[in-house]
């Protein structure tokens, strides 16, 4: 082999070793990036799992609150019905009270008239008595 051929072969060998080292470096870099990506993906998966658990707990609490709200709504509806019944009864009582007030006014007027008649009778008796005294 000539020196020129040896140089070309050595250059070829050096070039291959350089290319091999270059490619190995790139592969190590890619491997390192995949490792970091994998670790980040694991952390993200754990975080999503934690959020999923919290979301499940919140969903359960919302369902409980929703059930309680349904019960409260039912109770409010019952209370509204009872209030409407009470309003009806109050209207009847107010009607009765109005009637009683009218009767009281009439009784009061009749008593006033009665007192006036009694006073008139007393006065008339006094007048008659006085007339008898004068006539004597």
Structure description:
With 136 residues, the protein is an all-alpha fold. It is rod-shaped and about 175 Å long.
As residue ranges, the low-confidence spans are none
Order of helices and strands: H
Q: Looking at the structure, what is the overall shape? A: rod-shaped
How far apart are the first and last residues' alpha carbons, in Å? 191 Å
Please outline the major beta sheet. Answer: none
Write the layout of secondary structure elements.
Blueprint (H helix, E strand, L loop, with lengths): L2 H133 L1
Which properties best describe this structure?
rod-shaped; 136 residues; 0% strand; mainly alpha; 1 helix; 98% helix
Summed up, what is this model?
The chain is an all-alpha fold and 136 residues long. It is 98% helix and 0% strand.
């Amino acid at each position: 082999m000539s020196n020129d051929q040896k140089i070309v072969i050595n250059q070829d060998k050096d070039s291959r070793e350089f290319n091999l080292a270059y490619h190995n470096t790139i592969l190590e870099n890619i491997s390192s990036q995949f490792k970091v990506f994998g670790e980040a993906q694991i952390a993200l998966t754990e975080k999503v799992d934690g959020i999923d658990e919290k979301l499940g707990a919140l969903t359960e609490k919302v369902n409980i609150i929703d059930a309680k709200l349904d019960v409260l709504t039912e109770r409010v509806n019952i209370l509204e019905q009872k209030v409407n019944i009470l309003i009806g009864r109050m209207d009847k009582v107010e009607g009765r009270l109005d009637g009683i007030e009218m009767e009281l006014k009439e009784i009061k007027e009749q008593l006033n008239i009665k007192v006036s008649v009694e006073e008139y009778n007393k006065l008339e008796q006094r007048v008659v008595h006085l007339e008898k005294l004068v006539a004597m």
